[in-house]
Amino acid sequence: MEDFVEAFTRDNVSEVKVVLASIVTALALYQVFLMAVGYGKLKLPFLKPRPASFTHRATGDAIVLITLLVAFMCISYFGWDDSSHSDDESSSLHAIAGVLLLGVLGLKIIVIRWWHRMGRFLPVLGVAVLVLFLITWFGSAGNYLWGTS
User: Fold this and answer.
1) What are the beta bridge partners of residue 47?
2) Which of 12, 56, 94, 101 satisfies CB 3.0 to 4.6 Å to 132 for a cystine?
């Protein structure tokens, strides 16, 4: 799989991962804005709750696909022991947050699509997803961009 990831990224695995993770993190922040409008907490004359909620869902679908691609790249290329991190704590936190992110994101999708009775927990799940995106981004892309790895 490493060869496939290298070919796919033209030997720029870390750079592609950083760009994709940064895009996903920016979109996750945008998601908070969209749901603030969707839940009526933020009222804007140019964006109504229904289109904001629809955009949130469509953007979320794109985020999930990109996140799965980044996770595939991380696991298949870097493995569980990413030695590019400066310390084991940062690497462990990144790996744990990444696994939790996939789990919470999966649970959120299950609640949205099939387990509607648990819909009252969607705001909490959404915040958890955002926090986990930020932790994984700072633990990897943030380190890469600021040269602390």
Assistant:
1) 44
2) 101
Q: Is the pLDDT of residue 83 over 70?
A: no
For 32, 34, 37, 64, the CA distances from 71, given in Å and listed in that order, are: 22, 25, 30, 10
Write down the pLDDT at residue 62. 93
d(CA 33, CA 40): 11
Task: Find the Cα–Cα–Cα–Cα dihedral 62, 69, 132, 13, rounded to 10°.
Answer: -130
Say which amino acid occupies 118: M
Residue in 41, 65, 39, 60 with CA at minimum distance from that of residue 112: 60
Given a contact cutoff of 8 angstroms between Cβ atoms, the answer to whether 69 and 97 are in contact is no
Question: The pTM is what?
Answer: 0.77
d(CA 61, CA 56): 9
Q: Which amino acid is at 123?
A: P
Which CA distances in Å does 129 have to 40, 84, 94, 102, 104?
21, 25, 14, 9, 6
